[in-house]
Structures are given as C-alpha cells and as structure tokens.
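Note to self: keep these together.
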Amino acid sequence: MFVPIHKDLIEFKIRSLHLLVFVLLLVFIYVFSSCSNDTSSGINSIKIPKTNNSNLHLNDLAKNVSKVPLETKVGAFLTSILEVKRFNGNLLIRDTSGSVRIFDSKGNFVGKLGVRGEGPGEYRSAYSIETDQELGLIYLGSIRKLLVYDERYEFVKEKKYSDFITYISIVDHKPILIFGRDWIPVEKGFSNQTLLFELSPDLDITDSILLRNTILKEAAGIRYTSKHYLSNSRDGSFLYTPVLTQENILRDTLYKFEKDSIIPHLKFEFEEPHFDENGKKAVDIYNIMHSSSYIICEYARNKDKKLFIYSKKESKGYNFDFGVLDEDDQPVVLRPLDLENDIFYYVKEEKFQNTTMEEMNPVIGIVTLK
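Structure:
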C-alpha cells in the first residue's frame, strides 16, 4: 500500500545489541520523514527548476581537466563503461561485459582483475567494485559472491551470500553491501526491498537495515546501470538509493550516516509538476552524489535526462540538459572518483573513423571541480 506522503519513507530492521535504541530512532525518523513539505523540519533544501538555467561549460566549473585515452589492444576492448575506480594510481574499469580491466594513469592496458568462472576465487560477472585505498583492498561483487583482492591485484578471499549484491561501498573501512530483493509476493501485490548489510573484516554480516520496502500491484523492477548510492566526503558518508518503478511519492531526500543510524540530511525541491496528468512520475532520480564542495543530482524529467550541479561554496545550482558541456559542446555526465577532493570522471567515446579497424576504446576525462 502506498503511503500518501511526499517525503522519502525509510524503515529500519536492525540486528544488534542496541535494539531498543534503534527502535526509538526508527520512531523518530518515521515522524521526521513523514512531513514532506514542512520547512520547519530542519532539513536543508535545494530547489531544482524544470528548465535548463545554465550555459556554463565544464571548464567554467573545473580547475583541472585531464584526459586518459584508453589503449586499444587485444584483451583491452571495452563495451559500455559502467564504473571507474582509482587504485594505486591505476584505473579499474567495469563495463557491460562483466569484466574489470586495469589501465595505468596514461591509459596503458595493465590486465584484468581476477578470473572469470564458477569456481572458488572466480566470478561470473562483476556487478559492483569498490576500493579501500588505506588498507590496499579491492572488493568485487558478483551476483551472490563477494571477492577481495590485494594491492597486487591478487585474490585474497571470498564470501557467498543468499541475496544478489547490487552495490558495494566502504564506510570507516567497513564493507557495506546493498542488496535488492524484488518481486516478493505479498497480500496486495509484490514487494521490492532494498537492504543494507554491514560486514566485518572477515566479511561476516554484523548488522542489517531494511532501507526501503516498496509495494507494487504488479511484479516490476528497474535498475539504473550507473549506480552511485553511497558518497564518502569530508562531511561524512551519505546515502541515496533510487526507486524507478511507478509510485505516488517522490523520493527526494539524501540521508547521512550518523554513528549507528541513518538520518535525513537534505531535500531536493523539484519544481512542479512531479506527476503527469495520468498520475505517472514526471521526475525520476537516479543518483545523488555528495562531495566535499558539491552535490550532484542525476535525474530525468519526463524521460529527458538532466544533471544538476550544486556548489556548496556558492550556494548556487546549475541545471543541465543531459550533462555539462565539454570543449566540443558535447554533454558529459560527471561521476564520482574521489569525492573528498571533488574529483569526478566522465566517459567520452572516440569517433569511429575507419571501418577496417576495431573501434577505439573511450577516453576517460578526470575532472577536479573548483
């Protein structure tokens, strides 16, 4: 059953020794998050207009832009890039083939991460990757298996889970897994659940939270391939998980990790209408990324892709159609690379020029915002 509110609703299911404390927090958060348009709630809000209100280019926002042309050779060919991580000066790139390839800072191909397969220490397809720079570890999520590699890209250990690993991140050196459970039959339809698990260094589950439980009349599930659910910046760790199926609320709130809880932190006020004349969602939010100096929202209005960049220093936002324009007047979407230092990346395909040769690998743009 849909709850007729305009603020994101969050439910917690917590297994820990402090259950009573968490239950009290749950009640507080429920009341807090059920007042969608109450400006007295204490949550800061950022307005996002319907129209493009900026003619800025990337160079207007960035203090540095560098390009890394990825080498094209046997074994290095990429399809559509889904995720880029920086590790020990190299780039880890996950694409739609399900592999993770390693390139150095100049774009030279180094090799592949891990071994594809069904056996121990192998993965069928990579669905998310994360790095812990200080501990020198790489985490790779493959369906229901989490694998760990060291700074030499050698396999260390693995752990199997009962749920599909949708996303991996790190908070205070603790691996955080986000699982999606879709199409669970319930009394009035189907339930789509989003769960967060905290792991120990041995990859055992130490805590779990039911982030969201969406009830749908029909079995449906939509995933956006470029996932950036959790942001680590100098201001802390922030969480946004989208719901892209049809519902009658707009999930417009960014949450923050505070000790043993997750609390509402920031609300986006999208200009009306939020729904079309048929009651369908007019706004779909894909990602909210929180860096030390910027907040970036990747969304769509009436299926048209948008990118909103908000400067915390200037208290000013910039709304772009699809993405911010590069030097070729082509829109590019900024994605997180090092949020503590306001560093992002974008992917730009090379122009196809010769039908007798393989198509060139993309170029990765590395952007440090002002």
